[in-house]
Amino acid sequence: MSTVTIHTIPAAVHGRYLLRMPESSVSEGLLAGFHGYGETAGDELERLASISGASNWCLCSIEALHRFRNTKGNPGASWMTSSDRELRIAENIRYVDEVLAAALRQCCPGCRIVLHGFSQGAGMACRAAVLGKNEVSGVMLLGGDIPPELDRFDRMKAVHLVRGNRDPLYTEERFMQDAARLRDAGVPCRAVPFAGGHGTNSAYYRLAGEFLGQLSD
Length: 217
Prior knowledge:
Elements: E1 17-20, E2 30-34, H1 41-50, E3 58-62, E4 66-69, E5 75-78, H2 85-107, E6 113-118, H3 120-131, E7 138-142, E8 159-164, H4 172-184, E9 189-194, H5 202-216
């Protein structure tokens, strides 16, 4: 029987992102979001728009490149698979770099960037901040852990790390470990639990708005 070998080859694909301009004439900055597993850019844009004070920001919701139908039969997407992991990470970083550059040109050239990630998107937000070309002013993480291989946490500048106290996926133990990693690296980290599960509610949106407000001061 002949030997089977595995090869990879680059291919061009199209990703999509949603952009919402600020209501005010002067933008506070670009708030870019990464959705969770099986979600779409529309899901994340709805989260971003619900954050207190977000109406004064340019909102950009980035959709993952790996699309499929989720368990409800609806369109969804994923940021990562276990197959060819390093290649996928590099592809995602290049993709996000291009989206952020385009969003800045369209919305607020030269303005600051804040990243927001939910669940699986939290890891992507971390990778974009640490490995990407664009400098960020802060990173907001909800219900998702920091990838274990990352360091150079100084590039995240300031982190808003939040967990619902009934979240069965992002455990309290992992939440505390992530907060300790950031603090040990000297990164300002606001680690806050809230009354909720694996998702958002009014309490979360208020906490997120407080963090954005602090960055604006």
